[in-house]
TrEMBL record:
Coiled coil: none annotated. GO terms for biological process: CTP biosynthetic process; GTP biosynthetic process; UTP biosynthetic process. InterPro entries: NDK-like_dom (IPR034907), NDK-like_dom_sf (IPR036850), Nucleoside_diP_kinase (IPR001564). It catalyses: a ribonucleoside 5'-diphosphate + ATP = a ribonucleoside 5'-triphosphate + ADP; a 2'-deoxyribonucleoside 5'-diphosphate + ATP = a 2'-deoxyribonucleoside 5'-triphosphate + ADP. This is Nucleoside diphosphate kinase. The gene is ndk. The keyword GTP-binding does not apply.
Amino acid sequence: MAVQRTLSIIKPDAVAKNVIGKILTRFENAGLKIVEAKMAQLTKAEAEGFYAVHAARPFFADLVKFMISGPVMIQALEGENAVQVNRDLMGATNPKEAAAGTIRADFAESIDANAVHGSDSAENAAIEIAYFFGK
Ligand code: IDP
């Protein structure tokens, strides 16, 4: 498996809990390098654009509202098989279904406030990294 990049967002709930460092440490311990990083307060338009694929879903408005409810930390992570490595670290979308020891099992409260975003494919990772880092 080649070296890949993936987009990670530490969502407002996890930033508010003051666990940015703990989450970044998990990435580093798994061999992922943080090659881009920034704090951001997303605008409604930025959050809607980022999650445009979910625009027709019933939870879309709540998702956007949550993502703009406070600052986030956005990173590009690089490493072997980075997309899947990050998805494995994150755990299932619903923290109640996330495997023990995953980020969502340890830091997330609910399917809405679930601590982290991670790209679900190399193709989407390239689009998402360009969306926030412009390259
Ligand atoms: P993922 O973040 O695990 O890739 P997606 O299906 O891409 O999950 O959904 C994007 C985000 O939308 C989730 O992380 C979660 O915050 C929110 N979401 C997904 N499904 C639901 C739902 O059924 N109710 C409320 N929020 C949801």
